[in-house]
């Protein structure tokens, strides 16, 4: 069975992120895409547009000293423009180790990601880690 195009798009995004290929990531999202990060830490908030989202990804790399690793577990689709990607995230920061399950809920129009909502397993520990 062939994988749904939305699942393939999301997988390409994870692969590009893992390689640090920000140009490839830009190509997967609409110019006005939005990215929503939960919590009350300095990296939380809403990022609008490719430049803001790429800037957020670069800040994650900077804040974690390049240690952030995201291991994609599965991608679920509904065939109506939504995909959910479940992954394990690991990072080191200020001598602390962070590891938990998380997911992204993607909205896809045509062949571009237009919106991403991040959900985490333990919001309190994410807030503490990124504070």
Describe this structure in words.
The chain has four helices and six strands. It has a six-stranded mixed β-sheet. Helix 1 packs antiparallel against helix 2 (22-28). By secondary structure, it is α+β, with helices and mostly antiparallel strands. The chain is 34% helix and 44% strand.
Structural class: alpha+beta
| Strands side by side in the biggest sheet | 2-1-6-5-4-3
Strand content range: 35-45%
Q: Are there runs of 5+ residues with pLDDT below 50, and where?
A: none
Largest sheet: 6 strands, mixed
Mean pLDDT: 96
What's the Cα radius of gyration?
14 Å
Number of separate helices: 4
- Overall 3D shape: globular
In helices, the fraction of residues equals: 25-40%
């Amino acid at each position: 069975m062939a994988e749904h195009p939305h699942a393939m798009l999301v997988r390409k995004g994870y692969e590009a992120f893992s390689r640090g290929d920000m140009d490839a990531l830009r190509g997967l999202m609409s110019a006005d895409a939005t990215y929503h990060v939960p919590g009350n830490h300095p990296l939380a908030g809403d990022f609008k547009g490719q430049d803001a989202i790429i800037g957020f990804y670069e800040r994650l790399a900077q804040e974690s000293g390049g240690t952030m690793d995201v291991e994609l577990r599965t991608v679920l689709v509904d065939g109506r423009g939504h995909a959910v990607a479940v992954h394990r995230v690991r990072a080191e920061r200020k001598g602390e180790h962070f590891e938990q399950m998380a997911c992204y809920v993607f909205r896809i129009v045509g062949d571009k990601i237009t919106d991403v909502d991040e959900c985490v397993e333990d919001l309190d520990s994410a807030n503490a880690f990124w504070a």
